[in-house]
């Protein structure tokens, strides 16, 4: 196995497939560089198809790694669908641990592990994508002495991920994909900076993710208990200390940034309101049916009371629909 002088980690989501392809077309030749890619894809996607596509555009050997595989220079490793990909010193870890920021694979998981294992030798690149996966991981790379490169948001098909990194991390380069070739050439031509001490909380969180730790005692070392509950498992959420972006983690390993947690809560509120609307619609229809039967039977009142109550229910239905519309209109897009 050749010595790795630089580890390039790339994260992308919506619009990222083309951005990664364009980057690979002009990726600089370097015998001691290894590349890792996390692209947000559905769990049913064929990672091998993506690897086959990337292989057409680079001289790097592209593959989907398996757990415990040794890292090799001049390789490009693509995270398998529905699995996290982490790196240790000289080794790749692949597992199906809890989702982070609603994704598996997660960009943050890869970036954080790379920062711990290779600190100042890491080059992080965030490309097109929605929301803010990659921001915390890029912050970990920066705090561990690595280099941070972000695609120019105005060029990205979806600018959320680049903008969120720029708003929270002191990045080294904000450039178009085309200009990344020259930056990487310059970085590869120089030795990496001297290794730095990785912050202990970054180390511990990377270890928790790798070990699939569910011990609350371990979580208590890097986070404070919050008033929120995990949308996935119902457990208590803990707010991570000293991070680039506000994040919450439960003891089973689910992780949410504040933006994603807000989005999930809005979805749950919307689902609850739709259930309430359905139940009220059924109640209204039942009242109308009973009123009609009473009228046909010639009973006193002829269903007048039931009709009045059905009209009251209809008012509540319209109010709930207005609440739903208000929630959707006021929900932030990124």
Note the main attributes of this structure.
334 residues; alpha/beta; seven-stranded parallel β-sheet; 13 strands; four-stranded antiparallel β-sheet
Overview of this protein structure:
The chain has helices spanning 16-25, 47-55, 107-118, 135-143, 160-168, 177-188, 200-211, 216-220, 258-296, 304-330; strands at residues 6-12, 33-39, 61-63, 75-78, 84-88, 91-95, 122-126, 147-151, 173-175, 223-229, 236-240, 247-250, 255-257. By secondary structure, it is an alpha/beta fold. α1 (16-25) crosses α6, α4 packs parallel to α5 (160-168) and α9 (258-296) packs antiparallel against α10 (304-330). The longest helix is centred in the last third of the chain and has 39 residues, at 258-296. It starts with 5 loop residues before the first strand and ends with a helix.
Secondary structure elements and pairings:
Blueprint: E1 6-12, H1 16-25, E2 33-39, H2 47-55, E3 61-63, E4 75-78, E5 84-88, E6 91-95, H3 107-118, E7 122-126, H4 135-143, E8 147-151, H5 160-168, E9 173-175, H6 177-188, H7 200-211, H8 216-220, E10 223-229, E11 236-240, E12 247-250, E13 255-257, H9 258-296, H10 304-330
Parallel strand pairs: 1-2, 1-7, 2-4, 3-4, 7-8, 8-9
Antiparallel strand pairs: 5-6, 10-11, 11-12, 12-13
Helix pairs in contact: 1-6, 3-4, 3-7, 4-5, 9-10
Instruction: Report the portion of residues in β strands.
Output: 15-25%
Number of strands: 13
The percentage helix is: 40-55%
Rg result: 25 Å
